[in-house]
Design brief:
Radius of gyration: 14 Å
Mean pLDDT: 91
Order of helices and strands: HHH
Length: 47
């Protein structure tokens, strides 16, 4: 049973990362393009 819970958590984390832009946009009420622009800006800043 412990492995199943761990598997569900890992799958949930991967799904949340993959769909982070729509999730953040829905939670904050901001447009998706604004969230994507902010994420891209952070990626460029790290280089």
């Amino acid at each position: 049973m412990g492995w199943f819970i761990l598997l569900v958590l890992v799958v949930g984390a991967v799904a949340a990362y993959k769909f982070r832009v729509p999730l953040i946009a829905k939670l904050t009420g901001q447009p998706q393009h604004r969230i994507q622009r902010a994420i891209d800006k952070r990626k460029d800043k790290g280089r």
